[in-house]
Amino acid sequence: MNLNIEKEVASLRELTTGELRQRYAQLWGEEPRSRNRQYLIRRIVWRIQADAEGDLTKRACRRAAELADDAEVRATPPKDFATMQASAETEARRTTGRVRDLRLPPAGTSLVRNYKDRQIEVRVLETGFEFDGERYKSLTAIAKVVTGTHCNGFRFFKLGGKR
Fold first, then answer.
1. How far apart are CA 17 and CA 24, in angstroms?
2. Which CA distances in Å does 121 have to 64, 77, 81, 97, 141?
3. How far is CA 46 from CA 50, 72, 120, in A?
4. Most CB atoms within 10 A, among 93, 100, 102, 132?
5. d(Cα 7, Cα 114) in Å, to the nearest integer?
6. Burial classification of residue 60, based on how many CB atoms lie within 10 Å of its CB (0-12 exposed, 13-18 middle, 19 or more buried)
7. What is the DSSP letter of 79?
8. Whole-angstrom distance, CA of residue 144 vs CA of residue 11
9. Would you tell me how many other CB atoms lie within 10 Å of the CB of residue 121?
């Protein structure tokens, strides 16, 4: 079978999202969870190409199944996740009188970051941060002093994403 991917993609781009979802369901045997047109087109084209030219080998499929332990894959957080997070915040509020950001290490910890051949060391305090002998309320303020421009302090010190 001779497959012309460009023609196939062009014909798929003319379909509505609902029609793309139907085509996806025909090829994959299940309804897609996404309504993103680009995602649907890519997955449909991949399946058409795999059907025409051959899918993964049985060995590769077995290996992929070994690596993808379905019990570990979650689309949503556990039901008690919000409860766990709320209880951690309540405990923090009870002990310190305020909610401490869970991305921060404990007080007394030093954060070290190399930036433009300079080693930046920040000490985490109970109520803020210490850098070059001065106290700051946030890591963002320190990152701004160091870089000269505004940047997210958590990202600058590689402490995780937004809450």
1. 10
2. 43, 34, 33, 27, 14
3. 6, 25, 47
4. 100
5. 50
6. exposed
7. T
8. 50
9. 11
Name every residue whose Cβ is closer than 8 Å to that of residue 145 and which is 6 or more positions away in sequence: 131, 136
Q: For the chain, what percentages of helix, strand and coil (3-state, to nearest 5) are there?
A: 50, 15, 40
pTM: 0.41
Q: Which two tokens stand for residue 51?
A: 């059907």
Whether the Cβ atoms of residue 34 and residue 40 lie closer than 8 Å to each other: yes
- Give the separation between CA 100 and CA 141, rounded to whole angstroms: 17
The length of the chain is 163
